[in-house]
Automatic annotation (TrEMBL):
It holds the Pfam family HATPase_c. The keyword Zinc does not apply. GO terms for molecular function: ATP binding; phosphorelay sensor kinase activity. Its EC number is 2.7.13.3. It is a multi-pass membrane protein. InterPro entries: 2C_sensor_his_kinase, HATPase_C_sf, HATPase_dom, His_kinase_dom, HisK_dim/P_dom, HisK_dim/P_sf, Sig_transdc_His_kin-like_C. It comes from Acidiphilium multivorum (strain DSM 11245 / JCM 8867 / NBRC 100883 / AIU 301). One of its GO terms (cellular component) is plasma membrane. PROSITE patterns: HIS_KIN. This is histidine kinase. Keywords: ATP-binding, Cell membrane, Kinase, Membrane, Nucleotide-binding, Phosphoprotein, Plasmid, Transferase.
Length: 462
């Protein structure tokens, strides 16, 4: 329930429940109003019918029997009108059996409902109330016997009411319409808010996925823009911190490289100086031996200089379709004798593969990697050179069963002059990685429980 979408959905659900409760209350009040209105209409109909009966009693006072002439019938209309005079919204009249003798405001005085009500009143000899219709056209019919001198005369009244047209029903309908409109508007607003928030969040995620350090554009939404501004500020600070760390790492790497280079140069120079001093102080034989040693140290310095130049120069790859069997054979052949002298076995498995690469650069990288592996191994150890192909590219593994990489140098393994062997100069792995990088590949160290393992990876389809 912590997401904004879930909270807004909960808010709308609460609004929906409140609207339903309010709608239920309005409907309940409407039903109560309808019930009260029905009770009032029954009372009005009964009082109106009783008023007709009293008017008839006054009209027929002193008559021994009901005359059957036309004048008497016309008088009954006046009786009905006088009886209904206090009730302007009530219709009614006087009937004899099923014959209407007088009717006020009744379109169909011979209606079956009126006949049934008057017959029941004559049979029961007292007031009878009937109800028919529904909310749209409800009618309450009251019928009462008029008594002597005419025993078959009955008065009736009708109170009609359209509950759907009353002021309260209109008010209730308006309230329900307002509630429905509120729910629709709130649903539209919350949906628009959630969708807008989702779109803005997706744009931020896309921007960060494309370039984590890029400055995100503002959206025009004040609250959301505050978050984006804070994120842009954090990104800028992070970029500056990364730049400082990269600069510090570069300086640290340069310091380690300078220290290693000074060590590699100082040792041969020191040996040259000692040999020169010894030769100057000795006889011809000692001078000859000293010159030989000086030449050897000079060759060592020249070799080191050549490696440095090779490391600094950016190689230009010349790619071609190369057989890995031929490439592995060329890498293995020069080292067979050296490995056999140390009791180390070299195993290769090219799986008959070929790949588009620069044979010279790859061979130089493999030579450095294999030579390092043989130097690290002891008697009865094995160095393996294998290749495998998958859907994403080519993998070349160089593995050995030696003591592995010392934990202290694993993080700086590919930096120049970083080595775990006293006799090493720490340039082999750095040069090998540059040779592979120049072809668009990667060279990494894979941690292994036994020995060392390096992985060359060329992506793509050859």
């Amino acid at each position: 329930m912590r997401s904004l979408r879930a909270r807004l959905a909960l808010l709308w659900s609460i609004s929906l429940i409140a609207a339903i409760i309010a709608g239920g209350l309005i409907i309940g009040l409407f039903h109560q109003s309808a019930t009260a209105s029905l009770a009032r209409d029954r009372q009005v109909a009964a009082r109106a019918c009783d008023s007709i009966a009293r008017a008839y009693g006054f009209y027929s006072a002193g008559l021994g029997s009901a005359p059957q002439d036309e004048a008497f019938r016309k008088g009954l209309r006046g009786v009905a009108a006088f009886g209904l005079w206090p009730f302007p919204d009530v219709a009614g009249g006087i009937v004899s059996g099923s014959t209407a003798l007088a009717s006020i405001g009744v379109d169909t005085p011979h209606d079956a409902g009126i006949s049934t009500a008057t017959a029941a009143a004559l049979d029961a000899d007292h007031l009878v109330l009937r109800q028919r219709g529904g909310f749209g056209d409800r009618a309450v019919i009251a019928a009462c016997p008029l008594g002597s001198p005419a025993e078959d005369l009955a008065g009736f009244t009708i109170v009609r009411l359209d509950l759907l047209r009353t002021p309260f029903s209109k008010l209730a309908a308006g309230g329900l319409a307002v509630l429905l409109l509120f729910l629709m508007v709130s649903a539209w607003f919350l949906t628009r808010l959630v969708l807008g928030f989702s779109r803005r969040l997706a744009a931020v995620e896309a921007g960060l996925a494309t370039d984590p350090e890029a400055k995100l554009p503002l959206t025009g939404e004040p609250d959301f823009d505050r978050l984006i501004a804070a994120l842009n500020g954090a990104t800028a600070r992070l970029g500056r911190a990364r730049a400082r760390i990269a600069e510090q790492e570069k300086l640290a790497s340069l310091g380690r490289m300078a220290a290693g280079l000074a060590h590699e140069i100082r040792n041969p120079l020191g040996a040259i100086r000692l040999r020169a001093e010894s030769g100057l102080a000795g006889d011809a034989a000692r001078r000859g031996a000293a010159l030989d040693r000086i030449l050897a140290e000079s060759a060592r310095l020249e070799k080191l200089t050549g490696k440095l130049l090779g490391f600094a120069a950016a190689p230009a790859p010349q790619t071609e379709e190369a057989s890995l069997a031929h490439l592995f054979g060329e890498a293995r052949a020069p080292l067979e004798e050296y490995a056999a002298a140390k009791g180390v076995t070299i195993e290769t498995n090219d799986r008959g593969l070929s790949w588009t690469l620069d044979p010279a650069l790859t061979l130089r990288a493999l030579d450095n990697l294999l030579r390092n592996a043989i130097d690290a191994c002891g008697e009865d150890d094995t160095v393996r050179l294998t290749a495998a192909r998958d859907a994403d590219g080519l993998t070349i593994l160089i593995e050995d069963t030696g003591p592995g990489i010392a934990p202290g140098i694993a993080a700086h393994l590919f930096e120049p002059f970083v080595t775990g062997r006293p006799e090493g100069n720490g340039l082999g792995l750095a040069i090998a990685r540059e040779m592979i990088r120049a072809q668009g590949g990667t060279l990494v160290h894979d941690p292994s429980e036994h020995g060392a393992r390096f992985r060359i990876r060329f992506r793509g389809v050859s």
